[in-house]
Structure formats: C-alpha cells, structure tokens
Specification:
By secondary structure, the protein is of the alpha+beta class. 23% of the residues lie in helices and 29% in strands.
Length: 231
C-alpha cells in the first residue's frame, strides 16, 4: 500500500502560510516572556503606586468596589461584637468589621473587599478589657484600601470602634511601627497585648513598604497600637 503526497502549488502555498504564522506566533511568545521577566526584575523592591496585597481569604478575589451606603447601614452583628471602624485621620468612616480567622498557613485572613476591616475572632471584643486585633488591606490592583495610610497615624490620634449594640469605644494611638516581614510573626505576640498593661487596647495591622514580585507580597507590616480612652 503506497501513500501519495500532494505537492500541488496550492498545497505548498498553504504549508508556507501556516509555517510563517507558526514562526510569528513563537517569536511573539518569546518576546512577551522576555519582556515580562525584565519588567518584574526592574520592579523588584520598588514602591508600588497601585497597591496589591495577597493577604486575604484563600481562593477569593479582591473586591475594589466600596459597599453601598445601604449595605453599610444594613450590616449587623451580635450586640457585643465589633461592627464599624472609624478613623477620621485616615478618612475611614463606618468601615464594616467582619469576623476573621486564619488561613491554612496560619496567617490572619483579611476581608476580600479592600474597604472592609477584619476582626480576629480569637482576640478580644470591645468592652472585654483585652486587646482587639483588626486587619485591613493596603489596597487592590487599582485602588487604595482601608489601611493604605495606616503608617501616618501618630500618638494621640483616635480610633473608634462601634459594637453591634451601638456602644462606641474610643482608643488613643500609643505606638505605630513598621516591622520587616521576616520579623512580623515574632512581633505578633506583642501586638496581641496592650501597650499599657492593664488597659484595654486595639491593634490595627496591614501590609506596607516595598513590594516583592518574587514573594508576591509587601516586605513590611504596619502595627498600630492604641489604648482605650476612659472618660
């Protein structure tokens, strides 16, 4: 049994055309790969104008759309649980506080909406006398998040947390530090305690500093600690 190969001019032209298209496609893919590698190497360690954070619930996408006024008003929690966060200096008013745990790596989860705040449920609630731990996003791919300007807070600035029953607690900033990522885990034990022993406190946490494309995260963490104002 013999096979006859078609070497007609029409077939040859077709092969040539497909061959040229294949070469052009391969060249394009190689160029994109080279450009992408060069771009990320150039950006490694640089400050990002369009913030991105990878801290958050696993397998969930970052949401950059602020909740509507109706969604904020209708958000409810138990009477003794934190409901809203207000930090006037940051331009944050009645940010929803959502209960959070930790992911499979033991890292604090963060709400997938960059305008919401997470409350670590294993920490204290307002009014319980201990330290409440809240975390929030630096930002998303195109928009700054609720804690983008967290490093700007200074001693004496006010942080307000409102519970589900409407009772408001005001905290005065005592300490605001930037901690390298490699030291952040060790600092957590301090962040879980009050900066002034015996006083109720709140700790706000967010990513900050330079962005590492290799690690796909910021290279520092911001810890803002404040104590309850007793009036």
């Amino acid at each position: 049994m013999s096979l006859k190969i078609d070497f007609s001019p029409k077939r040859i032209v077709k092969w040539v055309v497909w061959g040229i298209l294949g070469v052009l496609l391969l060249a394009f893919l190689i160029r994109v790969a080279v450009w992408e590698d060069a771009y990320y190497r150039e950006k490694e360690g640089s400050e990002r104008d369009e913030a991105v954070t990878v801290v958050g619930p696993e397998d969930e996408e970052i949401v950059e759309i602020p909740p509507t006024e109706e969604e904020v008003v209708e958000y409810t929690v138990g009477p003794k649980r934190p409901r809203y966060l207000t930090v006037e200096k940051l331009g944050v008013y009645y940010a929803r506080i959502l209960p959070m745990g930790v992911n499979s790596k033991g890292e604090l989860n963060t709400p997938n909406n960059i305008f919401d705040v997470g409350w670590y449920e294993a920490s204290y609630a307002p009014g319980e006398g201990g330290t409440m731990v809240l975390d929030g996003h630096n930002g998303g791919p195109r928009v700054h998040g609720v804690f983008k300007d967290l490093p700007s807070l200074a001693a004496g600035d006010i942080i307000q947390v409102e519970r589900g029953d409407g009772v408001k607690y005001r905290y005065s900033v005592v300490e605001n530090v930037t901690v390298p990522l490699v030291e952040a885990d060790n600092y957590m034990s301090k962040a879980m305690r009050s900066p002034e022993p015996g006083k109720e406190s709140v700790t706000l946490i967010s990513c900050t500093g330079e962005w590492s494309q290799t690690q796909k995260t910021y290279l520092s963490r911001q810890f803002t600690r404040a104590v309850l104002i007793t009036e």
